[in-house]
Amino acid sequence: MARFQIVTAGDPILRKTARPVDEVTDRTRQILTNMTETMYHAHGVGLAAPQVGISRRMIVVDVGDGLMQLINPEIVKKEGLQEGPEGCLSVPGFNGIVIRANQVQVKALNEEGQEVTIDAEGFKARALQHEIDHLDGILYTDKASNVERAE
User: Fold this and answer.
1) Alpha-carbon distance 39 to 60, whole Å?
2) Residue 8 class from Cβ within 10 Å (0-12 exposed, 13-18 middle, 19+ buried)?
3) pLDDT of 2-41, one tens digit each?
4) Is position 83 annotated as part of the catalytic site?
5) For the chain, where are the alpha helices, taking DSSP H only?
């Protein structure tokens, strides 16, 4: 496996809307595998393809209850509100407080190209929203209050 280099704030790819994945191929799966290794190596809980310089709608998330590798994820339902701290591998050394939905339903394709529906709440919902924002060129700092250096 290979790890990608994570691009940081200021790189224009982080502000672009990522293109949908038209077909799930071995290359798609290899990118997801490399993204996963990159995320774990950086001690993150999520990573979006634009963060590794690939303008495609793919994310990986693992908040401690199992890895999700999602292609063309879309939030189809949101409920409630939560407010909490966020950081980002593309904005190293900083964190801020972000208000997000407390529960989300996400539809996507898995690494085999099968349609999946994920119901998430709390931290998992936050992580999914954060990574899907990356696919639309949105950084958490666009939504955060009190962005400051992390200790």
Assistant:
1) 8
2) middle
3) 899 999 999 999 999 999 999 999 999 999 999 999 999 9
4) no
5) 26-41, 123-135
Sheet holding 68-79, edge to edge: 46-48, 58-61, 68-79, 103-109, 115-121
Catalytic residue among 79, 121, 131, 148: 131
CB 77 within 8 A of CB 101: no
**Residues 83-96: tens digit of each pLDDT:** 999 999 999 999 99
Taking the alpha carbons of 121, 88, 26, 1 in that order, is the dihedral positive or negative? negative
E strands present in 2-56: 46-48
Sequence-ordered list of residues with C-beta below 8 angstroms from that of 47, at least 6 positions apart, any chain: 6, 35, 36, 38, 39, 59, 60, 61, 89, 131
Whether the CB-CB separation of 106 and 60 falls below 8 Å is answered with no
pTM of the model: 0.96
Q: What's the rounded Cα separation, in Å, for the pair 113 and 118?
A: 15
